[in-house]
Amino acid sequence: MVTNATIETLLNRRSIRAFKDEAIDDDVIDALETVAQHAASSQYLNDWSAIRVTDPELKRTLAGISGQAYVGTAPLLYVFVADEHRNAAIAARKDMDVHTDAFTLTSSYRFSQAQNDAVLALHAMETAAYSLGLGCVILGSLLNDVDKLIEALRLPELTYPVLGLAIGKPDQEPALKPRMPRSMQFFENTYPTDDAEVLEPLADFDETVHRYYDLRNTERPVDAFSDQIAAVAVDQGVASKNVGEHAAKQGFKLR
Where does the Nitroreductase domain start and stop, copy by copy (predicted)? Predict the structure, then answer.
């Protein structure tokens, strides 16, 4: 396999949840935010925003939402947001009636594209941070209570939180998490029709994942990968995180 510094940075990414108590320099912040702005954007709508959280009380609130104490002490903390509010304001300045059926920035298509753009920007920032020797963890846990998060960040209509990103100087060195065999995830031309063939390497992957978690935490054994998937498939807590309900409150029409 060919390699270079960028590939090595990506291959060695791991989630860092313990940071040194050291601030991130302003010039580094400038670089990270500029890189995020250079990520791809659907139809050049620039339909995402990111909120840098610096207020200690607000950080504690987000830590409470996520259930992760380290969120409250992360040296650099962002929440990336799908944002059609800004574009609606621009359209209104052009004398467009943003409350008619002709206005499509509220549609499910635009909502999904704005989410995609926010994720692309976050990933660009994360990769840049790793390349500078920093560590990161992506915070899907901030979506544990979307209504509370929207209230805490004062998110206006036509915005929606996507993911958080905590960044800092690493104070831990976790092992690299094993990755699924490529044959289970990369296909040629069409999706395979034979599930048994796709899942043929699963037993070995289950063993690899189980061994990884056993070595990581010998006092708290973790199920094999397939058992984790089965448990998540019937997770009763997912119903309370219905995106459609929360997005509708923000003015999006997911239909």
Answer: 11-169
Domain that holds residue 214: 182-233
Res. 236 pLDDT band, cuts 50 70 90: low
pLDDT digits (tens, 9 = 90+) for 208-217: 998 888 766 6
Amino acid occupying residue 6: T
Q: What is the DSSP string of 173-230?
A: -PPPPP---GGGT--SSS--S-HHHHTTTHHHHHHHHHHHHHHH-TTS----HHHHHH
Same domain assignment for residues 165 and 194: no
Q: Do 96 and 66 form a contact (C-beta atoms < 8 A)? A: no
Task: Supply the CATH number for residue 165's domain.
Answer: 3.40.109.10
- Do 109 and 204 belong together in one domain? no
Q: Are 14 and 176 in contact (CB under 8 A)?
A: yes
Strands (DSSP E) contained in the chain are: 48-52, 76-83, 135-139, 159-168
Percent of the chain with pLDDT strictly greater than 90: 80
CA distances to 115, 121, 165 from 48, in Å: 8, 8, 14
Q: What is the number of structural domains in the chain?
A: 2
In tens, the pLDDT along 32-88 reads 999 999 999 999 999 999 999 999 999 999 999 999 999 999 999 999 999 999 999
Task: Tokens for 97, please give them.
Answer: 């009636």
Tell whether pTM > 0.85: yes
Does the residue 255 lie in any domain?
A: no
- Return d(Cα 28, Cα 24) in angstroms, integer: 7
